[in-house]
């Protein structure tokens, strides 16, 4: 069985992330979405909320598993017999960092990293940008799946003054 992982913090997942995950799900029997736990960062969404939002957003796919992880990604891969890490690249600046990570991961365990160019529609998109725009009342409906939009609106509701 061919398995791949798409790792990230996904705070929140965007349509750019979903584009990469969806394309990977067409190439692999099982795609794991590994939601990174970083205890030193306070996200907008808890890890459990992120997992629930991702699961709701990928429900149409029958071959995607979502779970949290912390530690080395290569250990996650080894424990689940995952052969490849799939990473989306938005720009050359992403490549510089991701290439170093790919080489380190390969050196540690032999796991391969595949780089997938982002759909140009989402080349500017990041979770941080979505949160910033949404925080200031901007429309992000065209940038995130419906479950994320619903929860962003709920979390960022401002009481009437």
Which regions contain 5 or more consecutive residues with pLDDT less than 50? none
Pattern of helices and strands: EHEHEHEHEHH
The best one-word shape is: globular
**How many alpha or pi helices?**
6
Characterization of the model:
The structure is a single chain. The protein has 161 residues and is an alpha/beta fold. Helices cover 43% and strands 19% of the residues. The chain contains six helices and five strands; from the N terminus they run βαβαβαβαβαα. The chain has a five-stranded parallel β-sheet, sandwiched between helices. α3 crosses α4. 30% of the residues are buried. The mean pLDDT is 94.
Q: Could you name the key traits of this structure?
A:
161 residues
Task: Write the topology of this structure.
Layout: E1 3-8, H1 15-27, E2 30-36, H2 47-57, E3 64-69, H3 73-80, E4 84-89, H4 92-109, E5 112-117, H5 127-135, H6 146-155
Parallel strand pairs: 1-2, 1-4, 2-3, 4-5
Helix pairs in contact: 3-4
